[in-house]
Amino acid sequence: xxxxxxxxxxxxxxxxSLRDRERAALAGSGHLQVxxxxxxxxxxxxxxxxxxxxxxxxxxxxxxxxxxxAAITRLPxxxxxLADNVEAAGGRVFFAADADEAxxxxxxxxxxxxxxxxxxxxxMVTEEIQLNARLAEVGVTAVETDLGEWAQQLDGEPxxxxxxxxxxxxxxxxVRVLRPExxxxxxxPDAMCAFARRTLRPRFLDADLGITGVNLAVASTxxxxxxxxxxxxxxxSGAPPVHVAVMGMERVVADWPEVDLLLALxxxxxxxxxxxxxxxxxxxxxxxxxxxxxxxxxxxIVDNGRSKILGSPSQxxxxxxxxxxxxxxxxxxxxxGGHAYGDVYSGPIGAVIVPLLSDGNHExxxxxxxxxxxxxxxPVKIPLHELLLEGRAQHAGxxxxxxxxxxxxxSSPRAFALTGAPAGLRPPQxxxxxxxxxxAKGRTLPRREGSTFRTRWARGExxx
Amino acid sequence: MRVGLFVTCLVDLVAPEVGVATARVLARAGxxxxxxxxxxxxxxxxxNSGYREEAATVLRSTLRALAAADVDAYVAPAGxxxxxxxxFAAGLxxxxxxxxxxxxxxxxxxxxLAEHGGExxxxxxxxxxxxHDSCHMLRELRLRGEPRAALARVDGVSxxxxxxxxxxxxxxxxxxxxxxxxVAMADxxxxxxxxxxxxxxxxxxxxxxxRGRLEKLGVKTPVRHLAEILEEGTRP
Lengths: 464, 236
What we know:
The structure holds two protein chains of two kinds. Chain A is built from 23 helices and ten strands. Chain A is α/β, with parallel strands linked by helices. In chain A, helix 3 (31-53) packs across helix 13 (256-271), helix 4 (57-73) crosses helix 13 (256-271) and helix 17 (347-358) packs parallel to helix 19. Chain A is globular and about 90 Å long. Chain B is α/β, with parallel strands linked by helices. Chain B folds into two domains: 2-114, 3-Layer(aba) Sandwich (Rossmann fold), CATH 3.40.50; 122-233, Rossmann fold (3-Layer(aba) Sandwich), CATH 3.40.50. Chain B is 49% helix and 16% strand. Chain B has a four-stranded parallel beta sheet with strand order 2-1-3-4, with helices on both faces. Chain B has a four-stranded parallel beta sheet with strand order 6-5-7-8, with helices on both faces. In chain B, helix 12 links the parallel strand 7 (198-201) and strand 8.
């Protein structure tokens, strides 16, 4: 496991700089970029096509934006209502202020139940709180059951994409990862899937705990809505005797019409399908009259920095429904991949929320050319490029003296003209100031031919 | 119309030929062109780096210089600087009278020509042009048809098929903070250039970056601002 990848699974400030991680990702064989392009172009292309062909797509996105913003504005009230209704249906609810409280609750539960085996459906928030490592400390082996996430776990890597955790892996990578598990076939996706199904099926049946994320939690009925593409979420939540659902506190929605709209957008934006393959709506644990389902349902609602974003200029970041569309559209993500961001959240949304949630890794807000392709792709229209600018402004400071001097000079036309004088020269490399030296490594330095525009205008040389 | 040229810092200091071409094209379309003295920069380099106060200082001085001119409209040969004034400036300057005077009357060049270009027509030798959609112009100003319509005023110009909408990797100070990444982004885009006779755009900053990369790679494809192609095609 490279240092680059190891850091991606940790929280807070990575030891390396963003630029070092970018360089490391770019210096590879190029397989990373080929694999990412293949998957993201596919998903982004389908979503782009749907945005053009779906009648009223723009209005749907606007409506989703307002609904999400309204829910986030009412967050404390909706969370209270959700907790009441989950408990009324027989579930238990725990509010975790941070990662330690969340993992502490779950490990205590595991110990009380004498659990040693857990199955998990893919969940970003459990990656965020480092749940698998905490479970291992109390003797619980957690097996990821999303195919891509399982490959990542076997490979000792954190997910590299919100939706497709292993989308950077080639078919050869897959064979390498599955070989130690007993896979004997070749690079045939169907054979590999069949092998995974055979290997994972008994794990569901043997598990003491089933751990899932939550895509949307419906306050009005206390229902947890969970989306998967492989059906593993259904087995994870239904087969083991205890179901632990973990959600970021922003996942709550007021009522079902929101679910209808958001799921329609989630599937389309995330993978270009009209509706997600498996949608589970879970209200409470198994009732007496029912044959299937867990004996206990625990909902862990995680804050872990989210309430600091409430009421801040970046509040709209909480509207995110974690579809991954911004990653697929991002020209930076496709070059450096998810791990170079140095956190479990990557891409434009990662560059916005990681510094906010962890109060570290602030330079991530610079991991963007601010092209706005993320904003264009976001199904709930989060102005991600503006939030990146906000992040930069929040943590500006180290270059203050430089920009102040620049502002003084460039607010004076005379000083402006003087600073521009060297643009007509092509100085030797050693005399080129540092920022321009960085520029010149991969590009020729621009050189003005002749006088500045203002000089030509003053001399009457401009018009015919 | 009487048109004030907002030439932008990069054109003034690094690519004055773009300013000259813009002024001549506007004049040939029948407008009276003036250059409001005292303008410098829209402040975007500092704004994009997170230094809003410093950006506001520079932006304010330029807006004041522009607002002092007695003109009907302003034209900039740069989508990004136009966006800075029209879209981002409002969050930076509260109730600034100079902003209120300039922003509603500021046009990007091809946008202005779409409304006020009259019968401007020209001709060049047959030439396939790869037009680069710069990000602010495409996604903030939503100008996609306008620059192509401006090119269509010049007989002989045809549009080449390439990866026109993907970001070129310039991104302002991004290009020096993350130079390797910035160059990799340029390369991905430039690989689709194919046999186009010229690369053309309406943002001098993207063009400076793309030209610098092509030169470094030893590729001879000329990089021309939209204004330069229009100027060449409409020479009297």
